[in-house]
Fold this sequence. Notes:
Chain A is mainly α. Chain A has helices spanning 2-9, 20-33, 42-63, 75-85, 88-110. Chain A starts with a helix and ends in a 5-residue tail after the last helix.
Amino acid sequence: MRDLDRILLEDERPEPSSGFAASVMDDVLAEALGPPPIPFPWLQFALGFLVLPVLSGLLLWQLLPRLPVPLQVGLGTLLENLGAAAEPGMLWGLAVVAASSVVALWCYELVGGAD
Amino acid sequence: MQARDTSGDEDRRNVRRVLDGDVEAYRNIVERWQGPLIHLAYRFCRDRGVAEELAQDAFLKAYRRLGQWRGDAAFSTWLFALATNVYRSWARRRRLPTVPLDALRRLAEPARAPGDLERRERERLVREAVLSLPGKYRDAMILFYFHEMDVQQAAASLELAEGTLKSHLHRGRKLLEKKLPRLAEPATTPAGGTVRGTEA
């Protein structure tokens, strides 16, 4: 594999374009003069991360004993019967938890992860 | 690679000045490290324009996190690790490059004395084949050769243990051997002689 070593060691080294450093400094100065970036809300994220599975677990714990069919049936049948077994408040709870998860994930993606 | 190792003090002084509010001192850091950072980015994307964009992003992130450099490791180690993370994130988001099958077939044919154009094309395909490796092997190969085969520096840039890096390198090379079997064999002329400089 000496040939591989040679090929990968001798890779092209592109020179920075003449305005590169100036362009970086424009960004840096804009950053320095602007308001400080909003830090990622790790505390809220961690709370949500912990609370969400607990809430989902509680809802399922309440819901599963009321199911008119055994758990061994297929997922489709189980989901069909879930609506019948739940009180309207529970279904709303599930919907809110699901919607919150989607919105949280969407916001996380929008800000480009934790950066 | 020599210039960047000679004076860590200069980096330390510049960082201190930036943290004390002299933003212009960051220009010295950019001018000092722009070449290596663009070069490393180029190894991930093989496009000069994209490499500059990625390096710019890395410098901006480094500026934002300058206070997190603790000073126990060299500034360059910290900067390369940060830039590597930026480049790896970019590589994860983009579609995996593919090397055309007929190109791989050509690389698998018995080697003969290559012309300059053919040699360059072959080298280009080998570099692209590295980019098509699974992420952890690709990153190990890129950083290892960027740091001129220095395992310690490559492992520091990837924030990996040296043993893990070596194992990723070994696996990456095996995968490349499978893709490009000619690299593992001595190249021969049509008459059967070995071609100097192209043997594996």
